[in-house]
């Protein structure tokens, strides 16, 4: 009985560490931002109309806290801006890349199998209809 407990204890700790690592890594891929689309404005010879601020609370998603630097008349400028809060999990995007590679690889294999099958059918047609031989 004692040997079974001593064997299960390291396995338990390993699972606990892996679980804690996956939970901490999960938060790294959350992407929350506020995006404000405003009328075009020239700052340092660059025309800008989209302003982004990452890792911001939903309640703070407003023109005055996202647009920097604010123009001389911020109230009038902010009335013409549309701000929206965006939240997404980029872990899902990272997971899709290997799946796409596998899908492309599988499609390549299916295509090559289809080409081989078409060649076999062509050989059978030649043997049956032209030479009048039945394949055994």
From TrEMBL:
Protein known as: Uncharacterized protein
Transmembrane segments: none
Top-level taxon of the source organism: Eukaryota
Transport listed as a keyword: no
PANTHER family: TRANSMEMBRANE PROTEIN 9, TRANSMEMBRANE PROTEIN 9 FAMILY MEMBER
A matching Pfam family: Tmemb_9
Signal peptide: 1-25
């Amino acid at each position: 009985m004692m040997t079974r407990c001593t064997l299960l204890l390291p396995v338990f700790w390993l699972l606990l560490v892996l679980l804690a690592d996956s939970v901490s890594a999960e938060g790294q891929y959350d992407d929350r931002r506020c995006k404000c689309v405003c009328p075009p404005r020239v700052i340092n010879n660059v025309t800008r109309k989209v302003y982004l601020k990452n890792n911001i609370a939903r309640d703070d998603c407003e023109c005055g806290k996202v647009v920097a630097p604010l123009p001389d008349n911020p109230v009038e400028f902010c009335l013409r801006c549309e701000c929206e809060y965006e939240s997404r999990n980029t872990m899902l995007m990272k997971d899709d890349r290997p799946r796409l590679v596998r899908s492309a690889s599988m499609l390549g294999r299916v295509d090559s199998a289809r080409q081989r099958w078409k060649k076999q059918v062509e050989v059978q047609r030649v043997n049956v209809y032209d030479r009048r031989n039945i394949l055994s």
